[in-house]
Write a structure and sequence with these properties.
The protein is an alpha+beta fold. It is built from six helices and 13 strands. Strands 1, 2, 3, 5, 6, 7, 9 and 10 form an eight-stranded mixed β-sheet that branches. A five-stranded antiparallel β-sheet has the order 4-8-12-11-13. Strand 1 and strand 2 (about 70-80) form a beta hairpin. The protein is rod-shaped, with a radius of gyration of 36 Å. The protein starts with a helix and ends with a strand.
Amino acid sequence: MMRVYIALLAVSYTFAASSATVTNMEDVLLQIFPDVKTNLALRPPDLNSTQVAVNMHILDIYKIDDEDQEFGVSMYIRQRWTDPRVKFSATNPDITHVVLNDRDKLWVPDTFFVNERRTKFSEALTENSFIKIFNDGRVIYSTRVHTTLSCPLNHAKFPFDVQSCSFTLESYGHKRKELEYVWYEDKDFPVTVGKKLTTKPFQLRGYGIDACCKPNALCEYSCLTVDFLLSRRGFGRYLLQAYLPITFAVALAYLCLWLRTDWTIKVFLSAVSILCTAILAAFASSLGPETNDCTALDAWGFWSVVLSTLPMIVLIISRLLTPKVEEAKDEKLEKGEIKESLLGSRVEKIAIYMFPLIFALYNFVYWANYANRMSPENAIADERKVIVLDP
């Protein structure tokens, strides 16, 4: 009998404790959301601007579109601020905060992406967002966002290009004197990036953050910016499909000068080489994105066609300097004609040794100009903080 009494007493105590917890939580919510006392949809009353600290975790950078010049980012973004109106006290010391899933119950910053094209909040099963309110008035608003942002791309160095894509956070309706964004300064970097990114055909080499409105600058709106440095991958594809075939076509045009055959055959083979080089250059140009920029691949094709025409020009000059001799006439030529014939042959011999030097010089200038990739520190040097990733 005594055991049954003790068991009933324990159950009654547990039920009473749980009821007290629920009552305390209800009291907390009544403290935070009174019926008539205050309007929490308004910005927290403060003589100074409300400071919103921001940090984020980049889940993925996807859909880097060369033609539409945009990129997609999936991220968690967290905003922290203090609202003295939502302070509360609970008799239960375990209740230090409450979590809400409805952001319409109190004021939240009207943050938006300045260069946004499309944004979607994640709603897998339920909406991926919450608001955490602490007893001292601190508020954390966390949400998962999928956004597509504009990114002006410069394709002048394609396929060696390094692109810088960024996005900017700003308040839509509150000026700087009312709301100020700052990066959340903690032991971790305010922006972190996931290890597995689908940045094809690019590779993330680094990123930087900054406040685009400096403390002493005269800015109307406060804003934060994140900059990503992306380098293009997959050069082997362009090497096999464009650079090597065009190089072989130019070499074929050059080898026409070595042939010891009739002038007409050499001219015909040189013309075929020029045509092949032009076709390959057009194909190489089609491998790049549709852009108004003259790309490095376009420059390679154009100047290769120019170099492939030089043997044809040499053959024509050599022909003009060599007198035409009919087979029916005597094989002996006059001294002046012999000099002209030797002069035409000498032009071809000089060209045979000069063309490799010209092509080597062209390659040196081309690869030195286009193939060097800028370092992340130099590319995003204006940012306050830069993170360089391993290649």
